[in-house]
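Aim 2 progress update. The chain analyzed this quarter is reproduced below.
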Amino acid sequence: MTHRIRAFKYLSPWIFFLGGWIAFTSTGWMVWLNMIWAWICVPLVELLIKPDSTNLDTAEEELVKNDPIYDWLLYGVVIVQYALLFLFLQSISDPSLSKWDFTGRILVMGLLCGSFG
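Predicted structure tokens:
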């Protein structure tokens, strides 16, 4: 059961997908929320929390390999990445976007592609 609970920590990168959706559907400072999260909040949290150097032992690794939740998390990343790419392409074609919003959306999509492929 603890390996199922460990799967929840693999949901934390999905915050970037939420930030991408916010960036592509809003304007102003909200476009930059993902960049603030990635380049300011995450590094600060890593400085403040104690690192955990433990890895899965062999028995836990076998349980994880046979658990489909990790596969579904990975498949979900691919689907959401393509959906956000489509949303990005739709949103970037808006002629009323300011240069800051335009630049922010491009950087957020670059962050998503660099992080998730």
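Residues 2-44+57-116 form one domain. The CA atoms of residues 4 and 69 lie 8 Å apart. These observations will guide the mutagenesis experiments scheduled for the next reporting period.
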